[in-house]
Amino acid sequence: MATIRYTVPGLGNSDAGQIVGMLQNRLHALNDLQLTLKHAHWNVIGPHFIAVHEMLDPQVDSVRGFVDDVAERIATLGGSPDGTPGSLVRERTWDDYSIGRDDAIAHLGALDLVYSGVIADHRTQIEKLETLDPVTQDMLISQAGELEQFQWFLRAHLENSDGSLASQSSGTEKDAARAAR
Description:
Residues 23-160 form the Ferritin/DPS domain. This is Starvation-inducible DNA-binding protein. GO terms for molecular function: DNA binding; ferric iron binding; oxidoreductase activity, acting on metal ions. Residues 162-181 are annotated as: Disordered. The chain is mostly helical. The protein has a single domain (13-180), classed as Ferritin, CATH 1.20.1260. The chain is built from six helices and two strands. The longest helix has 31 residues, at 13-43. The radius of gyration is 17 Å and the shape is elongated.
């Protein structure tokens, strides 16, 4: 938990420190997501190249905005946002994105898993913030809604006519990429 010397009116320093800790994790996840999306944008190939390449850039831009919002909320609460690459790598609880140059649909299968993890973790923090800080909760709810829509955009490319996803039971990005192809 972060040491907080001051925070917003109506919120105690201890609660603010807890929220800052939650937000620091979200900051790392969102920074990682925007870098991962840009990596996929640069590395997609195949017949769906242009559709996926152009779909990912607006997602990158939106997620970069989320990063800024989270960092500024940390500062508003009296914390110090840490956006350094070393901190992200040291503190993250997930593996690095594992797909390089590959078919656009393979990247979408892998990115579906990435989005699932980020969204699930956002939802966990949203629940924890229910009584702790509705302002921060509202920010994460808004972000989760957009992240869910971005995931839907990916899944629309992956969905079979019966509504299933070929990659839905995959446990790793490589398995999801393989199943999506």
